[in-house]
Write a structure and sequence with these properties.
This protein is an alpha+beta fold. The chain has helices at residues 66-116, 118-128, 137-158; strands spanning 160-163, 175-182, 192-197, 199-202, 205-208, 210-216. The protein has a domain at 160-224: Roll (Nucleotide Exchange Factor Grpe, Chain A, domain 2), CATH 2.30.22.10. Strands 1-4-5 form a 3-stranded antiparallel beta sheet. A 3-stranded mixed beta sheet has the order 2-6-3, with no helix packed on it. The relative contact order is 0.06.
């Protein structure tokens, strides 16, 4: 009986994995088989653009017709003329109103001063009409001094300042030197010796300088000095 021939086989190595079937690259918009297609985004219009409208052609300037330009400039000119006339009229009214108010203020200030000296004028009138035969001269003099004090009080309250006093330093801005007097001492040099006429200043404005006599110091002559060794 014949035995069947045994076929000897070599041990086979590990099986290689099957290679994937070759595929062709598809565009992004087309999905591979078995995959979902990715949504395609629509282009977003740029800022200032309206969807469905075409942008204006570039390189072409928008020129205003000459007739419209003339009309627009004429209207603007008329508007500016009207504005100028209104401002000029308002300024003229303001100037007139300011001048009127200033005059009224000055008149009221003068009226207040005059009203304050009316009592003094009444007193002066009574003194002037005194009977010289029955009134002693001393009473007449006292009445005149009373009127002077009353008038000075009213005017000083209104802003009047009396200038000139004996012994004060000579001020060329407030005094007028009429004469000079020898000074008894060196410390009295350029001081007011006497007031010949009072001066007045009102509200910082010099109305009249005071007329004064001024002390002037003079060094004693050399021959009057004591002899050396005496």
């Amino acid at each position: 009986m014949t035995k069947p021939k045994s076929h000897s086989r070599k041990a086979a190595g590990p099986a290689r994995p099957p290679e994937p079937p070759a595929t062709h690259s598809l565009p992004d918009a087309v999905a591979a088989p078995g995959e979902l297609a990715a949504p395609v985004e629509a282009p977003v219009p740029a800022a200032g653009e309206v969807e469905g409208e075409e942008p204006p052609p570039t390189g072409q300037a928008l020129v205003e017709p000459p007739e419209q330009t003339i009309q627009r400039l004429s209207e603007e000119l008329e508007r500016l003329k009207d504005q100028h006339l209104r401002l000029a009229a308002e300024f003229d009214n303001f100037k007139k109103r300011t001048q009127r108010e200033r005059g009224e203020t000055w008149s009221r200030a003068q009226a207040e001063i005059v009203g304050g000296i009316l009592d003094g004028l009444d007193d002066l009138g009574r003194v002037a009409h005194l009977d010289a035969h029955s009134t002693p001269p001393r009473d007449v003099l006292a009445g005149v001094e009373l009127v002077e004090r009353k008038l000075l009080r009213v005017l000083t309250g209104a802003g009047l300042e009396r200038l000139g006093a004996e012994g004060e330093p000579f001020d060329p801005h407030a005094h007028e030197a009429v004469s000079t007097t020898p000074a008894p001492t060196a410390q009295q040099d350029h001081l007011v010796a006497s007031v010949l006429q009072a001066g007045y200043r009102f509200g910082g404005l010099l109305l009249r300088p005071a007329r004064v006599s001024v002390y002037v110091w003079q060094e004693p002559p050399a021959e009057d000095a004591a002899a050396p060794g005496s």
